[in-house]
Amino acid sequence: MRRTFLPAVVVLALSSAACRNDMHDQAKIRPFRKSAVWKDGSSARPLVPGTVPRGFLREDRAFFAGQGPDGRFLAELPPSVAVTKDLLLKGQERFNVFCSPCHGRTGDGQGMIVQRGFKQPSSFHVDRLRAERIGYFFDAMTNGFGQMSSYASQIPPEDRWAIAAYVRVLQLSRNAPASVLADDDRKELETASAPPPKSRTGEAHR
Length: 206
Description:
The protein is elongated. The relative contact order is 0.09. It has a domain at 83-176: Cytochrome Bc1 Complex, Chain D, domain 2 (Orthogonal Bundle). Helix content is 49%, strand content 0%. It has helices spanning 2-24, 61-65, 85-103, 112-115, 127-130, 134-143, 157-175, 183-193, 200-205. By secondary structure, it is mainly α.
């Protein structure tokens, strides 16, 4: 049986090797080589119009571009992004990693590399940026702005929206009216803002 089986294995191995060599040595066009098959002489063919790489279909313009049907930046987060505590905490973490070196952790534009001589960006707390739509901040992270380069390759869209939402939190932290605070927080703020009582010694001296 062994004598019969061994030759069969040898024949099968040789036939497989021949098949592999035929496919390996067949005529083919190598990438980026010239070719006489097409009139332009290029072996690489242009993509069919409308071709989208797998995983890169951007049908949701609001989510991927930060723009509404009218082409204007969104005034609010896109419908697919819900405002939650987890979203804001994610935004804070990503902001501190990618944005704070320039913008500072409070958004005042006094990040560490600014303190070392880099050009200072505008504070997020100026009237112009407080009035900007949230889609503007998403677009700046996506496409860059001024000396700021694009972060699209480093920060996925969902994290860019989280950062944009956290920028709104930073802005609100310095400009929120007392009426939006809970009763206990408002009382604590009023106590902290109240002038210190005058001492009896000071009154007598006056």
